[in-house]
């Protein structure tokens, strides 16, 4: 009797439990990676058609004032590659000669030029005089022109986000932790050359057009580019002006879009950001408190989702460049509830891995205020930041707390209260063996200049381990990420340039992931 508990069976069990592959099977079988599906409208960037939108943000992710003759800072390039007489389903790329193919533009120049106060061609969209309200309608309008109905869950476009880090403390354009102020009193320092430093850029557009290779392979190419210097004439070159450019081409061997990006800062605009965003098709997306449009039909939720992409960096943007190998953004309240657009209680949550090897760890044993209160190890163990012999300080760049949190553990740093429409919480991590278990870079320099890589990042598992603030005793928030971004933030530096390519981007989720257009979560 008792054979089940014989010593040999016991050791066999121990042996089984010590085998990592078996643990993985038992823990993850409901979501085995084979069952994962793409969450986005353009899986792996393989669509022959172009769906790209452009958005420009001032310091608090609004418009403030439109640039002269530029309209509201939302544009789109949505172009279908078609054979003229074939059905919609006919694939034009790779077939026959280019003379069979045409480009169908969904968005006209007059759509892209629409500016505050102008009527939309469709009655469904309301014309506001306030540029901050108009831009939201314009994004929804452009989204409606670009919408692809290839499932019950329509999607619109990839989003290119450009942000100006100048902040005029004499203006009242940006609220403080989501509260409108009549006067700002702060010791924080921000770049601003004087009146008008928060301006929107000049944006130029190369509409998608046909290109062919050897008269066989036909595809589209196009781009957006421009500058913040309103007096610049880019026909004479970039000169000492700020500059951004994003263009898309097909990789003829893989069929993926290649997004080629450049961002250059200047003395007047020393702090700029340029990201490629995969935003939810509807609803709030990271950093924004209005209904936006995007490409993620299903919402990735920790711990079960992954992100694939190829990143090839040619130029890093200097020592202050924070190059993000994935920035994830979401919103939830400090009591764990989903956001509802009330900027006094909604909190933007960001986490990003910075892969510039020149970025140091601000989180240190002698600067615990820049560390999260604890680290969660891969096995689920909490390690407090004061456990100096065990806490992996070098896995963190910095942590800062939301400005509207009421039960913070000392010491703490509050995140910049002005650079978002509402309070924000920020957790910036660095390449480290702690994160490498999820497919992230293991050491600084991995994936940097001259080391192009195709990453498969278990962003879901990693983001599940991160500390985010909540009021004591509240139910943990569902970590549903409405924006997944890759790109660069060049922090205060003059004349720095970053250049990089992104391709093969995909977000993969279990089939039962929540639809973006379903409901609030
Ligand atoms: C803000 O006001 C102060 C005091 O009037 C002035 O010295 C400063 O130049 C102003 N800053 C900007 C950006 O206009
Ligand atoms: C726009 O088109 C011009 C002319 O073909 C080209 O030189 C430039 O590189 C293009 N820029 C982008 C961002 O597409
Ligand atoms: C196209 O993809 C192949 C395979 O991943 C890669 O080797 C090549 O460098 C890519 N081409 C460009 C222009 O990025
Ligand atoms: C990015 O892609 C472009 C267009 O395919 C290619 O010419 C360029 O060499 C690539 N740059 C990098 C940094 O890979
Ligand atoms: C936002 O939330 C605060 C705190 O719960 C509440 O006092 C305020 O009335 C809300 N504002 C709106 C516009 O609902
Ligand atoms: C370390 O931090 C934890 C959590 O804040 C606290 O309970 C503990 O007393 C601290 N230990 C030391 C030695 O300060």
TrEMBL record:
Signal sequence region: 1-28
Keyword Signal: yes
TM region positions: none
InterPro entries assigned to the protein according to its UniProt record, in alphabetical order: DUF7705
Pfam family, one: DUF7705
Keywords on record: Signal
Domain DUF7705 residues, every copy: 37-509
PANTHER family linked to this entry: EXPANSIN-LIKE EG45 DOMAIN-CONTAINING PROTEIN
Protein name: DUF7705 domain-containing protein
Organism: Citrullus colocynthis
